[in-house]
Amino acid sequence: MDSRFWHVFQKELTCLICKKYFIDPVTIDCGHSFCRPCLYLCWQETSDLSLCLKCKRVTRKRDYKTDISIKNLAVLARKASLLQFLSSEEHTCVVHKETKKIFCQENKNLLCVLCSDSQEHQGHRHLSVDRAAEEHRETLLKTMECLWKILCENSRNMNMEIIKTRSWEVSVREAIRNVFQKMPLYLQEEEQHHWEILYKEHREIFEQLNESQARMAHKRETLRGMYKELKEMCHKPDVELLQVTTDKCESMLLHMPQPVNPELSAVPITGLIETLRYFQGEFQPTDRILDTLGLLCRSHRCFLAWGVHTFISGRYYWEVDVGNSCNWAVGVCNGFWKEKNTKTFVDERLFPIACVKEDVHYSFFTTSPLLVQYVARPINHIGLFLDYEARTMSFLDVDHSSLIYTIPSCSFSIHLKPIFCCCHL
Would you call the peptide bond into 369 cis, given omega within 30 degrees of 0 as the criterion? Predict the structure, then answer.
């Protein structure tokens, strides 16, 4: 082959990041190609935009299919390099004077064809060196794919721990302050008692969250280092690649740090429910609309309902009994959300609190903003307090006269409707 043509051929099959032949190549929107592992590692360091490392053009996505055409050409290029490497005297059988181009998977040795047929290697699995190397390379790539998913999961868990650490105490403090502002003056003395309980819990949970973050950060760097190591293995010349093992990967993948689920105590507030029931008034029965909510429970019996009342000002309190359901959502929605009927509970026009059961754990989450709070037991009797002028929506545990959460600074529209969703799994 002409040397100039071979040089161009090699260049076209070389990753722009690692400067080696492609492994698992992907071609992104702008037309430039990279090794998937190289691209993943570079893009992981940028949280916002995915840019081409060559032309700096923004790409539409981060998940691309393997470019099979380029992959097959890269395999041919490695095979050509291997044949040149095996042509040396070092890889010539001293007995039969033939090139050692067969790999014995049992003994991990290179053999000539005649040696592979000998009685010594009878019953052993033999492959050509290039095929054995590509099979091993594919095995490593599958391990890397699994490793990357775990790395991403660990990163998501770590980000959630950071969010929990930064937001949960502030949000609970604000919620308690908002509720006590609605209470008689003589009950506001209880506020200090709640602060003391909250501070003690905060110190314990904050320490747990920080320790969890540290474990996940260490795990992230370990997994990332392992991923880089496997990438370098894949880039090794075929003969070297056949001598490497990945035993330590398995033990690493078995031990993943789990996120902390902080649980706050349900501290009773004297006279809370009795005071808020002053704003209850007379509520008419709700109009029910039966539907299947694909987002929350695609294949289970669910229903969505909203009340006939429309709120345009003032303070209102009402209660909802969810029975034995552990998966529900209650709150208010802007009139536009009801008319649009998007069936999504992540919407700036919706102000709910939702309860979700996962295994034996129960958690509340809100979407405005997105926050998660864990509880030790299910709550069946929910109180809702809407303060239209203050732009707040509060949720309470009626049976224990305690606050669950208050959504502050709600972007209410002119018309608000009560909403309720229940799912029986």
Answer: yes
